Amino acid sequence: MSRSVQTAYDLARESFAALGVDTEAALARLDRIPISMHCWQGDDVRGFESPTTPLTGGIQTSGNYPGRARTASELRADLEMAMAQIPGPKRLNLHAIYLESDRPVDRDAILPQHFQGWVDWAGKLKLGLDFNPSCFSHRLSEDNLTLSHPDPAIRRFWIDHCKACRRISAHFGQSLGSPSVMNIWVPDGSKDLPVDRFTPRQRLMEALDDIIAEPLSPAFHRDAVEGKLFGIGAESYTVGSNEFYLAYATSRKVMLCLDAGHFHPTEVVSDKLSAVLMFVDQVLLHVSRPVRWDSDHVVLLDDETQAIANELVRGDVLSRVTIGLDYFDASINRIAAWVIGMRNMRKALLRALLEAPRLREIELRGDFSSRLALLEEQKSAPWAAVWDFYCDSRGVPVGGAWLDRVKSHEKDVLEQRK
């Protein structure tokens, strides 16, 4: 432990104690909050099924920074490099296109064995795995319709794909001793105004009911559904809207996924948490950073990220919310993108845990001037010293020292990938 880090932490601990905050208790609690890291940042959402297939379904990456992972081994090595710079418990979120097979396997025929390499790797690193069907970038998704497709054969293909994914997800949970959250997102929608909005949603509802019909133990697997405001090719109508999925999750008792980029620019997920958790038992978060639309930029320690963390802690709902990140940036070092976003999410959680407990009491008695004053004073409280101590005591670099490691890895490894 660096003497300067320890000294700064000791002073910070005294400062927070004066506010009624036990920093040791906050750090211990922080160590019990896993964050699910998204694999698709490392290879620009290409996967290993057919990496040359163009991205579809409203998904786009921009930039061509050198060193994109091309194989599962390269991706796992990059993930390990990133995770070594990030304190606290982590999970990994996989998409179905990241299967490993020595022969072509269509998506309705994928099996747990095609992901055993990921399970073995996660077991060694003591990670949990989460999962997602990949209902995009496929010959049967070219018209931006999958589970709501009017052709029963195409619809059946995607239903069977999602069913196969549920069994793989349950295999993850059973193998690793931690339930896998499987999130269903589909790009279905219309570029221009449709005449019939009802029938596609009827088909989507029936398809989802078919998918989740097989009982799976919640100890191993949990279903989540994710809505969206709009997407490329679905500017005028999104079949799986946020309202649709809120009603579906509530009525079917599955998890609701709230993606920070899937709403109108004036809406924020932080405000929605306390509303939806009145009616939905569990929520999956996709923390992202939209820039004018769902552009999935690297998560910053910005107001909304902090507000999300504050709501989770203030509402005491961390046990009911699974935190995952969702962005992809090919214009910068992909490992750095992971590290920046993951560290920022954990910083936000730490700051929330360091909030003075008397704020609720002050608010309850109507002393709003004291509430405002304390909230503003806490912005300059020495939380960064607690963060540095957390990183140092958990064996990861303090401050920006992690960037030296990542840039060295870029020179020695990433630049050699041609």
Describe the fold and architecture.
- The protein has 418 residues and is α/β, with parallel strands linked by helices.
- The protein has one domain (35-81, 89-350): TIM Barrel, CATH 3.20.20.
- It has 14 helices and 10 strands.
- It has helices spanning 3-18, 23-30, 72-83, 116-125, 152-176, 198-211, 242-252, 269-276, 303-314, 334-353, 358-364, 368-378, 383-393, 401-412, and strands at 35-38, 90-95, 128-132, 180-184, 189-190, 221-226, 237-238, 255-259, 283-287, 321-325.
- The protein has an 8-stranded parallel beta sheet with strand order 3-2-1-10-9-8-6-4.
- The longest helix is centred in the middle third of the chain and has 25 residues, at 152-176.
- The chain is globular and about 65 Å long.
- The chain starts with a helix and ends in a 6-residue tail after the last helix.
TL;DR?
This protein has 418 residues and is of the alpha/beta class. The protein is built from 14 helices and 10 strands. It has helices at 3-18, 23-30, 72-83, 116-125, 152-176, 198-211, 242-252, 269-276, 303-314, 334-353, 358-364, 368-378, 383-393, 401-412; strands at 35-38, 90-95, 128-132, 180-184, 189-190, 221-226, 237-238, 255-259, 283-287, 321-325.
